[in-house]
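User: Please predict structures.

Assistant: First:
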Amino acid sequence: MKKIAIASDHAGFEYKEIIKKHLEGKFEVEDFGTFSLDSVDYPDFVHPAANSIEQGRNEWGILICGSGEGVAITANKHQNIRCALCWMPELASLARQHNNANMIALPARFIATQLATDIVDTFLNTAFEGGRHQNRVEKISTC
């Protein structure tokens, strides 16, 4: 069973819980928090989730905050993370096909829960195309 890291801040907490339930039985989900609606700092949860992917404990990650921006920016500070902000399934598909994204960021304040689960499903069920995209992906982390 494939392993997925999930994390959110307070604005994404309810979506995180819905997505976890949606993935039950299909994937092994490691929840990095937050665990309530109390105000928190999203990097405290994003960094451990991203580390788990870099260390090979989890294959993919799902991050949720109000806009999706903060969690995406934080995750992308990690050398081997490619996190895409997605607000429609087509973006999740392209992020996997062309960019080999290993994390997605969802904007809880701007999408409905059904759309969020559709985006997650698309992300998790889309393969990287490789080919001409492989060379481009390899150039991302050269600093």
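Second:
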Amino acid sequence: MNKLMSPSTGTGLRQRLIEDMSVRGFTEKTRRDYIRSVAGFVSFLGRSPDTATAEDIRRFQIHLSELGMHAPAMNSTVSALRFFFTHTLDRPEISRKLIRLRYARKLPTVLSADEVARLLAAAKSLKHRAALAVAYGAGLRVAEVASLKVGDIDSARMLIRVERGKGGRYRHAMLSLDLLTLLRAWWQEGRRHGVMLHGGWLFPGQDPAKPITTRQLSRVVEDAAAAAGITKNVSPHTLRHYLPRLTMSSSGISVQDSKGL
């Protein structure tokens, strides 16, 4: 049995890990990833993690390397174990033995102004078009888009409140008048169809009481890219790498490069 889950040693440590992450506002995805990484180490160790030594850490990283784990995944595991040993077990001296790997980062896929306009126009529904426009126009991550509620749109100050940003931080994103116009159009349509609940999610899922998932948004982008004839490898994150001005016209959505004042 995985000792992180065992009645004798694991349940308490697992719960403490969850509590330590929750109090720091970690996202659900980060919590799942950290639990999975720590559980993998415990499975490798074969005993309670509070007895781990620096040599155990070294052997585990060698083990992951021999399995062919790539540098980004290795570094993610290192982050999880560092948090676990530093905060949950209060053994920071062990966490300092973990090694992060350097690697060449790939340049992100960048869309042209025409491709962005075609992608948004190819979205199958107003909800999907509005969600992609938020990711693009406000530079939000896919998880941030999915987590937006109607009340997060501050039209008085022209801001979007992002409550579940990376690392649990709170921030505001700029809201353009064009994006607000599109969001209001979606809000009105959602209200007519009874899916826009009072105080509910800005982009509800099939169950209006739950938000659209990041996986659904990824499929929306992939389908729109295919429909628009875009052959580049496109994901929701791609929209954050190109931020010219988004404009609305009577004929639909258009994109213009920002040339300054």
